[in-house]
Design a protein that fits this description.
- By secondary structure, the protein is α/β, with parallel strands linked by helices.
- It is 34% helix and 28% strand.
- It folds into 2 domains: 2-117 and 281-300, NAD(P)-binding Rossmann-like Domain (Rossmann fold, 3-Layer(aba) Sandwich); 121-276 and 314-322, Dihydrodipicolinate Reductase, domain 2 (2-Layer Sandwich), CATH 3.30.360.10.
- It has 9 helices and 14 strands.
- The strands form 2 sheets. The protein has a 9-stranded mixed β-sheet with strand order 7-8-9-6-10-11-12-14-13.
- Strand 10 and strand 11 (227-232) form a beta hairpin.
- Helix 1 packs across helix 8 (281-295), helix 4 (72-81) packs parallel to helix 5 and helix 5 (96-109) packs antiparallel against helix 9.
Length: 328
């Protein structure tokens, strides 16, 4: 199956290497209007550069869109109308209306679309795949140093949207209320933000994202009855703490437990570090995209998933803008 790459910037070059490392995709070439980016790719990989998007689309079955967010809608819709399957980096589009329109086009054209919410493929998150998750409180911190190349969108669309997708995937309930605050420090859009998302089932998610931090952090904590789960997406590890009653029928061996007294009697704690497979998350998501096309199944991260995360992200942006306007 032939795929073409749209965008050969920093992330595009990473995608290119991952495509070349797969056995399922044949890379037909790439399109990038920037001569410097294009020259670097040609020199390093000897990959064909197409002069236009249309020329590339004529020779592929699918495209991988790794371009600035404002271009996603135009490129994705052009590919869909040409009958091509689409992998598009997050956020899926710049506006909610563009995302809604892409959903309509994808259904009309009958093509597969996967959105690049790569943390779904992070080894730490994959380690929980067989675990029954029903979090009632979620806390996440995603902190990064300032990078000028990411300022075409706010920190909500740049960083927090990773955690929005994860939270919406974890919590099988509709969003009931969103509150948020944030501030622009080094760019014209919010560089640091905090959002509180309340769901109809009672779950609450508290998300913090910053792109002006002195240290990197990508952590999420999940709390549910009798369980505490800690995920470190940067270090790619997970920790599970489970609480057992003294006479629980499924009590693990004593050497795996820690005993302690509470006002309600004796309890037992089990701490586990689930096995984490060494996975290249970007390569895996591209392989899963191929699998969904070949087998006619739903992509792991659907266009609707990307749209839902985008919609909540814009709710957060609206809350921040409203709050700032009231203070001015």
């Amino acid at each position: 199956m032939r795929i073409g790459l749209l965008g050969a910037g920093h992330l595009g070059k990473i995608h290119l290497k991952c495509i070349l490392a797969t056995e399922c995709w044949q890379l037909a070439g790439f399109y990038d209007p920037d001569d410097k980016n294009a020259a670097a790719v040609i020199t390093q990989h000897g990959i064909r550069r197409f002069d236009t998007v249309a020329a590339l689309l004529a020779e592929v079955d699918a495209v991988d869109i790794v371009t600035p967010t404002p271009t996603h809608f135009e490129l994705a819709s052009q590919a869909m109308f040409a009958g091509k399957h689409v992998f598009v980096e997050k956020p899926v589009t710049q506006t909610v209306e563009e995302g809604r329109r892409l959903l309509e086009i994808a259904e009309q054209q009958g093509v597969k679309v996967q959105v690049g919410h790569v943390e779904r493929f992070n080894p730490a998150y994959l380690a929980l795949k067989n675990m029954l998750l029903n979090p009632m409180f979620i806390e996440s911190h995603r902190l990064a140093a300032f990078q000028p190349r990411g300022t075409d969108v706010s920190v909500i669309l740049d960083l927090m949207i990773h955690d929005l997708d994860l939270v919406l995937h974890l919590v099988q309930s509709e969003v009931a209320h969103v509150s948020a605050s944030g501030v622009a420090v080094l760019s014209h859009t919010p560089d640091i933000a905090n959002a509180r998302i309340e769901f109809e089932n009672g779950c609450v998610a508290n998300l913090t994202a910053s792109r002006i931090s002195l240290k990197q952090m990508r952590k999420m904590r999940l709390f549910q009855p009798d369980h505490y789960i800690s995920l470190d997406f940067l270090e790619k590890n997970a920790q599970i703490v489970r609480l057992y009653e003294q006479n629980a029928p499924n009590l693990p061996p004593q050497d795996e437990l820690m005993e302690f007294e509470t006002s309600a009697g004796k309890k037992w704690l089990q701490m586990q570090m689930p096995e984490v497979a060494p996975v290249n998350a970007i390569q895996l998501e591209l392989e899963m995209f191929h699998e969904s096309i070949a087998e006619g199944t739903q992509p792991e991260v659907t266009l609707l998933d990307g749209f839902r995360a985008l919609k909540v992200a814009h709710q957060i942006l609206h809350e921040i803008e409203t709050r700032l306007a009231a203070l001015s």
